[in-house]
Amino acid sequence: MAALGYAAPGSVWPERVIVVCIVVLLHLALFAGWLMQPLPPQAAVNEMSISFANLQRPQAEVEPQPVIKPEPKPAPRARTNQPEAPAAAKPPVREESVPPAPAIETPTSPVQLDAEPDYRADYLNNPRPPYPLMARRMGYQGTVILNVEVLAEGEAGEVRLEQSCGYRILDEAALQTVKTWHFSPSRRLGQPVTRWFLVPIKFSLKD
């Protein structure tokens, strides 16, 4: 019993090697059988080769151009010295003399050689003598005549009372105003000269 139930260690190892070898051989046999199976038929692939043909355009035939022969040049003509025809003489042009236009005489304004002094011109801007308020209230009125020395420069020189109006207040108003006046001087032979001149000054309540 002891000999059947227990195997010696030296006899176990060769058995294991034999089992492993058998397993390996079985696997190899299965693999070889699988390789020996016929392969399934493969679909045939039709390969198409494409070739590119070089298409060339037909060239148009060029017609030969006709050769143009140069025309012969005419021989130069010999110049002959011909007398030129004389130019037609132009008829003389008569110049008509135009008579000069008669001179137009412009009337000349007469020159005033002699003139009296003037004090009424607008450009002189001489003021009127003031009418005193007292004389208005009293009803004084009348004409004062002054003798004025009009200088050649157009200014009043000496002013004298030539004739009174009867009221001293009006005489003084006339004298003081005329002394400030400007005059157009008297002229003799066209030249301004100094001259005495009478100037009437009128005071009226109706004005």
Write a short abstract of this structure.
By secondary structure, the protein is of the alpha+beta class. It is built from four helices and five strands; from the N terminus they run H-H-H-E-E-H-E-E-E.
CATH superfamily of the domain at 122-203: TonB
* Cα separation of the termini: 194 Å
Multimeric state = single chain
Order of helices and strands: HHHEEHEEE
CATH third-tier fold name of the domain at 122-203: TolA/TonB C-terminal domain
The averaged pLDDT comes out at 75
Instruction: Output the strand order for the largest sheet.
Output: 2-1-5
Gross morphology is elongated
The largest pleated sheet is described as:
3 strands, antiparallel
Beta fraction: 15-25%
Q: Tell me the total number of β-strands.
A: 5
CATH class of the domain at 122-203: Alpha Beta
Structural class: alpha+beta
Number of helices: 4
List segments where confidence is low: pLDDT < 50 over at least 5 consecutive residues.
1-7, 43-55
What is the level-2 CATH architecture name of the domain at 122-203? 2-Layer Sandwich
Task: Report the C-alpha radius of gyration, rounded.
Answer: 79 Å
Q: Give the % helix.
A: 10-25%
